Amino acid sequence: MTCNVTLDTLDGQTMPAYRAEPEGTPKAAIVVIQEIFGVNGGIRRKCDTLAEAGYLAIAPDLFWRLEPGIELDPDIEPQMQRALSLMGEFDQDRGVSDIEAAIRYARDASGGRKVGAVGYCLGGRLAYMTAARTDVDASVGYYAVGVDGLLGEKHAIAHPLMLHIAGEDGFVDKETQASMHEGLDDHPKVTLHDYAGEDHGFATEFGERRSDAAARQADERTAAFFTEHLG
């Protein structure tokens, strides 16, 4: 079952979200963190797939403070430019606070079970920040941007984190990828996977960016990771 819900934020407001429920009791919950394109069809499909695997999935509309209900298509150039503009306007610290609110909602809605997070693009960066700043039980980031600037927070990562790195990422250059490895390869809670020849967005559900073989490999690793750490 799927539906739109509203969550209470930590600052006393309400935030829209998409919720997908499994048949029967969920084995755990997962917060799905959007790309810069909002909670669009691809993000909803990510939630639906997690629900099919037995998880309660929640995708908070993190751009709600800018404009609720934004859905953009990266294959349409004006919409891509709009998404890039939104990323520049977006308050990432407040975004993590809103993700924390979604984690609390998911934990309560799942009957106190473990809660994971998975994010893509901007959401991949936010997944890293979530791992460092909240009590989330396990996190996954796909082609996270700007992680080299967040390495000062790595000491706060107390629960498992997996990052999928696109080898030819147009938004994460080779120097940044090297910094991620240098800073995180020896972290006991962090696992990095590299995808040679793949570009940013390779695991999107729909559209021109998807690279099917790499997407399937990354998603299989993510599924095994959540099975291990969330149950």
From TrEMBL:
Keyword Hydrolase attached: yes
Record-annotated membrane-spanning stretches: none
Coiled-coil parts of chain: none
Name of the molecule in the record: Dienelactone hydrolase family protein
Entry-linked Gene3D superfamilies: alpha/beta hydrolase
SUPFAM superfamilies linked: alpha/beta-Hydrolases
Key words, A-Z: Hydrolase
GO molecular function, one term: hydrolase activity
A Pfam match: DLH
Residue stretches making up the Dienelactone hydrolase domain: 15-229
